[in-house]
Design a protein that fits this description.
Helix content of chain B: 40-55%
Strand content of chain A: 25-35%
Structural class of chain B: alpha+beta
Structural class of chain A: alpha/beta
Number of domains of chain B: 2
Strand content of chain B: 15-25%
CATH architecture of the domain at 3-95 and 162-225 in chain A: 3-Layer(aba) Sandwich
Order of helices and strands of chain B: HHEHEEEEHEEEEHEHEHHHHH
Shape of chain B: elongated
Strand order of the largest sheet of chain A: 6-7-8-3-9-10
Helix content of chain A: 25-40%
Number of helices of chain A: 6
Order of helices and strands of chain A: EEEHEEHEHHHEHEEE
CATH topology of the domain at 3-95 and 162-225 in chain A: Rossmann fold
Largest interface: A-B, 36 and 26 residues
Number of strands of chain A: 10
Largest sheet of chain B: 6 strands, mixed, barrel
Oligomer: heterodimer
CATH class of the domain at 3-95 and 162-225 in chain A: Alpha Beta
Distance between the termini of chain A: 21 Å
Amino acid sequence: MSLLLSEVVLTYPDGDRRLTALDGVSLEVAPGEFTAVVGPSGSGKSSLLAVAATLLTPDSGRVLIGGQDAAALNDKQRTALRRDRIGIVFQQSNLLASLTAVEQLQAVAHLRGEKPRAVASRAESLLASVGLTDGKQHRRPHQLSGGERQRVNIARALFAEPSVLLVDEPTSALDHERGEQIVGLLARITREHGTATVMVTHDKAQLTAADRVLEMVDGRLAEAVAA
Amino acid sequence: MFVALRDIRFAKGRFALMGAVVTLITTLVVFLYGLTGGLASAASSSIAQLPAKDVVFGAPQGAAPEVSFSNSGVSPQQEQAFADAPGIGRVESFGVAMSRLTGDSGATSVSVFGAPADLLPPVVSGAAPQAGQVAVGQKVADDSKLHVGAEVSVGGRTLTVSAITADRSYAHAPSVWTTSATWAEVTGARQPNALAVDPGSADLAALDKAQNTETVSRDAALAGIDGYAAEQGSLQMIQGFLFAVSALVVGAFFTVWTVQRKADIAVLKAVGASSGYLIRDALAQAVAMLAAGALTGALIGFAGGAVLGGSGMPFTLGAATVAVPVVVMVLLGLAGAALAVRRITSVDPLTALGANR
């Protein structure tokens, strides 16, 4: 199992009491499986993603990434785990303004100690595979459309060949048609790259491409509904 | 430095502005360094280049000795006591006083040294002065159109130029050299001001105690030149302030820059960048900007210094004049930047998730 969350509880301080964001959440996602999590704002979707990304440590429960227990790791090891095993597709594209599309990917490789020049052609190929061609690989974020930025965002998340792909509201800044294209692209790359993909979204119109749809309500993952 | 260099390229206006500030401050510091060195040389080269390790200052009976050429006097007994000390190397007395040298083509203020031939600067032409003779520096000779054998008036007494020497100066006046006896006649002084000493194995502390003298190193003796310490202190204080301003300005720039980059830093942390990686990247950015700015400033300072030095301004242009400001600017700027980029460690990668940018 690439991603396993078991009985995860996460609470936040809220004045004198604590607010429960995740209430005994369990989730298993296999390689090549595209799981969508829907739910209203404040239901705990983002907390689920943050815990799965090892950016938050739960109060209790286990988080296993490719069989590795995140709770057993220190900060440095968790950072390395995110770098090597987890890809994050951010809600907004969150691209670095100073870098071209190719350089966004090269920067990820540089974090891993790879020489940026050595990975340039692989970066261009990956960008082409997500639909960024015709010289757009060498444009900066402000020179790309919203959909194109999101494709770069996806390619960046994939570039380190992660086993887990976490996707945060990928269509929130896109119109329906472009949103559909992006979700379709995520479904395709999940199968092609064999990632365990979890996409949180509030947009129920974009769920047809998912293998499985779960609903988050008040910090609990509800029964799966048919995709 | 992958992201750092691209950030500089992308925000070149901001970095150029900051680099220009570093350039200007470095240029100013190089000028000040050269000027400080030039003024120090003009005020002290006669003492700074004395062929002796230490200088002994004396005081009248009952008074405490002080490191001051104006207030110091060394008696024949004190000189003899030093000369007779076991293990002592060379002991030479010398005196210095300000006077006026008048030649056929005009008059100029000079510092007159009365000293044995051993203490003279290198002789360019002629021979060390005997009684009634004087050795003048090359610049005085050129400016006053003097030559060996020419007659000049110093302190109302006519002396014959016996030698042209390398240039030396004292208290911003070019130095001329004569014998101790002639010096006493010219200046009216009754005893020399100080002793130039090579101590050998002699116990100078015991000698000082017994003779009511104070022995200091030749470099420390420069403080005995009237106004030298105040002049150098003022210039060095300005240099210090400029360095401090530079570190603060660079620190402020990188503080603002780091705050502006917080969102980018959060994203990089979220995708697996360690704080160490990001701090190294930011410091590399600071080094690139500081080095470019400081080197440009050094080049401008060097070129400007060459022009100033050629125009007669007291300006010392050397490797240290340029290298010290560049190195100090980069190091202090880096310290300011390091304090600023520490806040990278406090950026929470969680803010990259779900946050509107």
